[in-house]
Design brief:
The protein is α/β, with parallel strands linked by helices and 182 residues long. It is 47% helix and 13% strand. The protein is built from 8 helices and 5 strands, in the order βαβαααβααβαβα.
Length: 182
């Protein structure tokens, strides 16, 4: 029997984020692939693939000031691709909610879509829940104060049952000796 290959979607600020949110996405993507063996949709990488085809040697963000129509048409392509990924392929969404996500619109749309399609949303944030819009909170399945705490949850959820709350493997294994399984 072949086990299901889970798909994760990485949601969070890009337009207003430091380095478009590349750093946190690459770090958690690598961890998910290495530890959970899941497939990850990283919007930074997918956007770059499209921009390389459409705008070689040009800066997409500058188009907002210099060629708004082209900018909007490309943004629509991103929205379509990301929405399709969430609706049709993703099993869960990891959301990093910071000031850039709060300022932008894409993350809010992604979380709404995930909620509509009944995909769990695991949010990592340092922002107090009282400062997060109620709509966003209504889309979230669970929240974590750090990526480390999220990782502990994901390890437990996806089959790694011997993980303690500190994220370390629990060495208390049941002995097979005496149960006829030696």
């Amino acid at each position: 029997m072949v086990s299901k290959k889970y798909h994760a979607y990485l949601s969070g600020g890009m337009e207003y984020a430091n380095n478009e949110g590349v750093d946190w996405r690459n770090e958690i993507e690598n961890w998910i692939i290495q530890k959970l063996k899941h497939i990850v949709f990283n919007p930074n990488k997918e956007s770059q693939k499209l921009l390389t085809k459409l705008l070689p040697q040009k800066n997409f963000r500058e188009l907002k000031s210099t060629d708004i129509d082209t900018y909007i048409n490309i943004a629509k392509r991103f929205i379509d691709k990301d929405s399709k990924e969430i609706a049709l392929r993703s099993d869960y969404i990891i959301c990093y909610w910071d000031e850039s996500a709060q300022r932008g619109a894409g993350t809010k749309g992604e979380l709404t879509l995930a909620r509509y399609f009944k995909k769990p949303v695991y949010m990592v944030t340092n922002i107090s829940r009282q400062q997060i819009p109620g709509w966003v909170l209504g889309c979230v399945t669970s929240t974590y104060d750090s990526f480390e705490l999220l990782q502990v949850f994901l390890m437990k959820k996806y089959g790694y049952k011997n993980i303690t709350s500190t994220g370390k493997k629990n060495d208390q294994r049941k002995s097979k000796i005496g149960k006829g399984l030696s």
